[in-house]
Every structure is written in structure tokens, then in C-alpha cells.
Design a protein that fits this description.
- The protein contains 17 helices and 17 strands.
- It has helices at about 15-20, 80-85, 110-125, 135-150, 155, 165-180, 195-205, 225-235, 255-270, 285-290, 290-300, 330-350, 355-365, 365-400, 405-410, 420-430, 450-465; strands spanning about 5-10, 20-25, 30-35, 55-60, 95, 160-165, 190, 210-215, 215, 220, 240-245, 270-275, 305-310, 320-325, 415, 435, 440-445.
- It has a 7-stranded mixed sheet, sandwiched between helices. Strands 1-4 form a two-stranded antiparallel sheet.
- Strand 7 (about 190), helix 7 and strand 8 form a beta-alpha-beta unit.
- The chain is globular and about 65 Å long.
- Bound molecules: ligand KET.
- Ligand KET binds near residues 98 and 278.
- Important for the metabolism of amino acids and Krebs-cycle related organic acids. In plants, it is involved in nitrogen metabolism and in aspects of carbon and energy metabolism.
- Its EC number is 2.6.1.1.
- Belongs to the class-I pyridoxal-phosphate-dependent aminotransferase family.
Length: about 475
């Protein structure tokens, strides 16, 4: 191999296909070879805005990397916050970034019912054979029943295609791939704002999306008129992504009458509702109440997508357990959809992990354990409600400006959308060591009663003293 090569590479485009080239000595001549990365559609190329060096002029030594043209990716807006939190040595630090439940002592929590089931599983000495592509049959059965209700006609008539997924994210990603493959003309409508990863998921699946109005900063509530107008204006047959309950990041859900109107419009426009259910049971403490939106749509005989996650409600974050459900108008369509979801999963990850699936199947499938789970979920949801109340009380007691903080009590679920802007959110972190996302969201699941007053001080300072 030549020890030193002098090469000058020129690239005007930031796209990886044009900017990355490698060189090699081939029969005494230099041959430039494309990196193999290529994107044909600049508009949906998620990396198109990441500038690598436009003009590369270098003396390539033997140890020059072929990956020198790859720019450093920015930290993830949510999971990156945990990394920054870990690096902070202050005693005051508080991680309100990622939506993960903590105890009053701010420690991660493994549910007792999960520990119990894991012991049972260990005693049984279960094997580690591959699961089928669609996942554990017992899990798929209980997860659909939990979502729709076991007596729901869509279940009885086998109209639901259920496939175990890699938690909520992986299930959404499977569905996005299905949309890309079978509805190439369709776009997905997502709420503004929404969970930060939704856009990444559809970008990577090459599915076009646009936003519908959702949050109204003036009322700190739902912009229902705007939402309806935007869903109405979208091309017929669009997918409408809806948060089943506890909208992330705003914590603002439509009321039942509004859900009815949303369903009317979606039916009228021939759109396909696509629910992301990441917080069933965690918003209100009731699994049934939190599934009401999905069940309302299913009861109308509508076809719909539902992605489910057990990260929060069973605390199985790192087990990556969830499911993708497609409700169809016939059992035949459901069987065909399921076969295609499997076809998409096989080359992506082959088959899903078994551990979390067994936990869910055992907990939900056993009446005593199921009741224990419900009690623990109520406890978790209750602790979050308590810190929400205490934070509100602390803000009211300490803030002398007359600002109305009652919006905090109206929001539900794990989060509070504080209304702090990016600079104010940065002040929370830089001055007060309160780690949170830059959109002003705080995870109340990471807050203790003992820290509410400190947090109120930080919010009041950031609100009034930072513009
Ligand atoms: N949907 C929503 C609305 C959601 O908030 C999350 C996670 C997910 C899906 C996916 O979770 P999974 O663990 O893949 O089942 N949200 C928290 C964690 C994250 O960003 O990954 C969060 O917003 O902090």
C-alpha cells in the first residue's frame, strides 16, 4: 500500500453522495471511488443540512479515515439531555429531560409486579429461542385486548393486525415503512408541536409529513379551530398522527366532544387515523380511560393504526417492548397487512426480543398480577399529580407578579409544558442545573415533592429575568 497520497477532492454539495470520496492506489493510478452513500431526493434527505467540508484538500496519510467527511451529529434533543445531566457535578442538579418515572428519592423504579414476574420466569427456566417475526403470540393477544378491550368486535372478528415492535419507536418505524411502501402518495399530518422523534421517524422512512396546528400559546391550550382547519385542508387519504392520551410535549388533550369532531372530520376526508399510545394508564391512572380516544374511532368501524409502548406504564424502558396494531375492515385485510409488517421487520431486525414480551403477557394475562400492576400504575400517576399540584402551589406562593399558573394543573400526564422559551430553558440548565428540553418541557416524573420549591424558584427567575 502506498504510504502517502496527495489528493485534492472538490465538492460543492453538502450531500454525502457528492462530498464523500475515498481514494485508493490501483495499478499505480489513483482511482476515486464514491462512498456508496447516495440520496436521490434532496428534500427528504435528513442529512442534507449537515455540512461536511465543502472543499476537501488533504494529504492523506495511511491512517486518514474514510469517514473524515462525516460531520459530528448534534446531540439528541431529549436523550442528549440525560448525557449532559450525567456530566454535571453539582449537588443541585435535577433531570427533568427524558420522560422516565423516578421515585420520590429520584431513583429509577422497577415495578414490584415486574420483579415478581421476572422471578417466575427465572424459576420456569424459559429458553431463549428466536421468537416468530411477529413476536410472542401471548403478548400480541393481550396487548390488542388491553388497547381495544377484550370484547371489542374488532378483536372478536380478527380485524386487528398486531405485530410486536421494538417499543413505541420501533412500532412507529414499522408503520412508517408500511406507509412508504403501500401509500407512496400519502403524507402524514403531525401536531405542532409533537414528540421530537416523530419527524425523525418519518424522515428516515422517507415519508413526507406536514404539521397541523395544535397548541395555542395565547390560551396555553388546544388550538382546536386551527387543528380542524389544517386536517380539513390536507389532501384526502392523509394519515393523521394523534396522541392517544397525554399529548407530548404539551400535556393537553382534546375533550371527548372534540375527539368526536376530529373523528367526524377524519371520516369525511377519508384520512387514516394513526394513534401513538405511549402512556396508556399513565395519564389518568386508568387503562380504559386512557384508551377511550382509540376505542371511539374503532367503534365507528374506521380503519386505523395504533403504536403502543410499555416503556412508561410498566417501566420497561430498556426492554423495548411495544406493538403495532392495524385495524382493518376485514379479517382478510388484517391477515395481509400483518404478513407485510412481518416482511418489513425481517430484514430490519429479524424478530423482536422476548423478555419484555413475556413480562407483559404474564402481567396482563394473570388477573391477580394485572390488579397489582393497575395499583402500581395508579401510584405512579398519583405521585406525578402530587408534584404537579405542589409545583403549582409553590409557583403561586413565590411569584408576586400575578401571573396565572393554572395551566400547569390543566395539563395531564408525565410532562408540563411550561411556556419557557429556548433562552429561558437554557437559563434553567446553565444557572439552576435543571435539565430539560429546549422547548420548555419538564418531566414531572423526574421531580420530587422536596424539589418543587427549588424548581419554582428556577422557573420564576427564568420567566421574569430572561427574555
Ligand atoms: N411516543 C411518544 C409520544 C413518546 O413520548 C415516546 C417516548 C415514544 C413514543 C417512544 O417511547 P419508546 O420507549 O420507544 O416506547 N418519549 C420519551 C422518551 C424518548 O424521547 O425516547 C420522552 O419524550 O422523553
Amino acid at each position: 500500500m502506498a504510504s502517502l497520497l496527495s489528493v485534492s477532492l472538490t465538492s460543492a454539495s453538502p450531500s454525502p453522495s457528492a462530498s464523500l470520496s475515498t481514494q485508493e492506489s490501483h495499478k499505480g493510478k489513483l482511482k476515486l471511488r464514491n462512498s456508496g452513500l447516495s440520496f436521490t431526493n434532496e428534500k427528504i434527505n435528513p442529512f442534507a443540512n449537515e455540512k461536511s467540508s465543502g472543499r476537501i484538500s488533504m494529504v492523506a496519510a495511511v491512517n486518514a479515515s474514510r469517514f473524515d467527511g462525516i460531520a459530528m451529529a448534534p446531540p439528541d434533543p431529549i436523550l442528549g439531555v440525560s448525557e449532559a445531566f450525567k456530566a454535571d457535578t453539582s449537588e443541585l442538579k435535577l433531570n427533568l429531560g427524558v420522560g422516565a418515572y423516578r421515585t420520590e428519592e429520584l431513583q429509577p423504579y422497577v415495578l414490584n409486579v415486574v420483579k415478581k414476574v421476572e422471578n417466575l420466569m427465572l424459576e420456569r427456566g424459559e429458553n431463549k429461542e428466536y421468537l416468530p417475526i411477529e413476536g410472542l403470540a401471548a403478548f400480541n393477544k393481550v396487548t390488542a385486548e388491553l388497547l381495544f378491550g377484550a370484547d371489542n368486535p374488532v378483536i372478536k372478528e380478527q380485524k386487528v393486525a398486531t405485530v410486536q415492535g421494538l417499543s413505541g419507536t420501533g412500532s412507529l418505524r414499522l408503520a412508517a415503512a408500511l406507509i412508504e411502501r403501500y401509500f407512496p402518495e400519502a403524507k402524514v399530518l403531525i401536531s405542532s408541536p409533537t414528540w421530537g422523534n416523530h419527524k425523525n421517524i418519518f424522515n428516515d422512512a422517507r415519508v413526507p409529513w406536514s404539521e397541523y396546528r395544535y397548541y395555542d400559546p395565547k390560551t396555553v391550550g388546544l388550538d382546536f379551530e386551527g387543528m380542524i382547519a389544517d386536517i380539513k385542508a390536507a389532501p384526502e387519504g392523509s394519515f393523521v398522527l394523534l396522541h392517544g392520551c397525554a399529548h407530548n410535549p404539551t400535556g393537553i388533550d382534546p375533550i371527548p366532544e372534540q375527539w368526536e369532531k376530529i373523528a367526524d372530520l377524519i371520516q369525511e376526508k377519508n384520512h387514516i387515523p394513526f394513534f401513538d399510545v405511549a402512556y396508556q394508564g399513565f395519564a389518568s391512572g386508568s387503562l380504559d380511560a386512557d384508551a377511550a380516544s382509540v376505542r371511539l374511532f374503532a367503534a365507528r368501524g374506521m380503519e386505523l393504526f395504533v403504536a403502543q409502548s410499555y416503556s412508561k406504564n410498566l417501566g420497561l424502558y430498556s426492554e423495548r417492548i411495544g406493538a403495532m396494531n392495524v385495524v382493518c375492515t376485514s379479517a382478510g385485510a388484517a391477515a395481509r397487512v400483518k404478513s407485510q409488517l412481518k416482511r418489513i421487520a425481517r430484514p430490519m431486525y429479524s424478530n423482536p426480543p422476548i423478555h419484555g414480551a413475556r413480562i407483559v403477557a404474564n402481567v396482563v394475562g394473570d388477573p391477580a398480577l394485572f390488579n397489582e400492576w393497575k395499583a402500581e400504575m395508579e401510584m405512579m400517576a398519583g405521585r406525578i399529580k402530587n408534584v404537579r399540584q405542589k409545583l403549582y402551589d409553590s409557583l403561586c406562593a413565590k411569584d408576586k407578579s400575578g401571573k396565572d399558573w393554572s395551566f400547569i394543573l390543566e395539563q395531564i400526564g408525565m410532562f408540563s409544558f411550561t411556556g419557557l422559551n429556548q433562552t429561558q430553558s437554557e437559563n434553567m440548565t446553565n444557572k439552576w442545573h435543571v435539565y430539560m428540553t429546549k422547548d420548555g418541557r419538564i418531566s414531572l416524573a423526574g421531580l420530587s415533592l422536596a424539589k418543587c420549591e427549588y424548581l419554582a424558584d428556577a422557573i420564576i427567575d427564568s420567566f421574569h429575568n430572561v427574555s
